[in-house]
Amino acid sequence: MQELEFVSWLGVFLAALSAFVLGGVWYAPFLFGKPWMRAAKLTDADLSTGNKALTFGGSFVLAFIAAFVFALFIGPQPGIPFAVGAGFAAGLFWVMTSFGINYLFEKKSLTLFFVNGGYHTVQFTLYGLILGALQ
Questions:
Q1: Which one of 8, 22, 99, 128 is at 20 to 30 Å from 15 when CA atoms are compared?
Q2: Domains held by the chain: number
Q3: Structural domain that includes position 102
Q4: CB neighbours of 2 closer than 8 A, spacing ≥ 6?
């Protein structure tokens, strides 16, 4: 597996971790948490139920996989400007537009589209920054 030798596993881990830090701020009540909850039709009670280990553990595994594949996508020694630009483009033009397709058919609100799509745009931009610096 020589093709994987260039991947910075520390970078992948830190990128995945950055998704959690960003999510904690992005979806906090003082930023986009309240509009997100209204648009998603969620209550505080809804968010307090369920298996938190599965939710957070599963989310970390998925963020780790996304960061790993993004590291493969940008390749060895991508440089920070390229990696940040690729992250921004991936978040905005792949993830956010893909959400848009689903949200149009699901009749979800524009607010939910911008809150969730904006989060993933910043998430992948951070992935680019971190991996561009460490890869």
A1: 99
A2: 1
A3: 2-134
A4: none
